[in-house]
Amino acid sequence: MAGRPVANIRSQVKRIHRSERERLENRRLQGAVRTHFRRLERAVDSGEESTIADEHRQLVSRIDKAVQKGALHANNGARKKSRAARLLSRASA
């Protein structure tokens, strides 16, 4: 947020700052999930079994942490893990 917050009430100013901090943290967690997803897709394309398993494990961990911290909804996390599992099964097939 650029400049000074618009709110006049001190508690609301603090709430605006807190919301911004939380928004940035959520974006960081969501971005990490997307990054790990791309890394898994690259690993599947390369075909290295050990790398694929490692990337899948890291991705699932990132998704679980994002869901636990509230950056992702539980159903969204489950859908992403399901997508990752399909990628994993496609790689092993």
Distance between the termini: 48 Å
Shape: elongated
SSE ordering:
HHH
Radius of gyration: 18 Å
**Helical residue percent?**
over 70%
Count every helix, treating DSSP H or I runs of 4 or more residues as helices: 3
**Count of the separate structural domains:** 1
Topology-level CATH name: Methane Monooxygenase Hydroxylase, Chain G, domain 1
State the secondary-structure class. Answer: mainly alpha
Under the CATH scheme, which architecture would be assigned?
Up-down Bundle
- The CATH first-level class comes to Mainly Alpha
Q: Summarize the main sheet.
A: none
Number-wise, the strands total 0
CATH superfamily: Ribosomal protein S20
As residue ranges, the low-confidence spans are none
Report the β-strand fraction as a percent range: under 5%
Instruction: Please state the average pLDDT score.
Output: 93
Structural overview:
By secondary structure, this protein is an all-alpha fold. It has a single domain (10-92), classed as Up-down Bundle (Methane Monooxygenase Hydroxylase, Chain G, domain 1), CATH 1.20.58. Helices cover 83% and strands 0% of the residues. It has three helices and no strands. The protein has helices at 10-46, 49-69, 74-92. Helix 1 (10-46) packs antiparallel against helix 2 (49-69), helix 1 (10-46) runs parallel beside helix 3 (74-92) and helix 2 runs antiparallel to helix 3. The protein is elongated, with a radius of gyration of 18 Å. The model has no long low-confidence stretch (mean pLDDT 93).
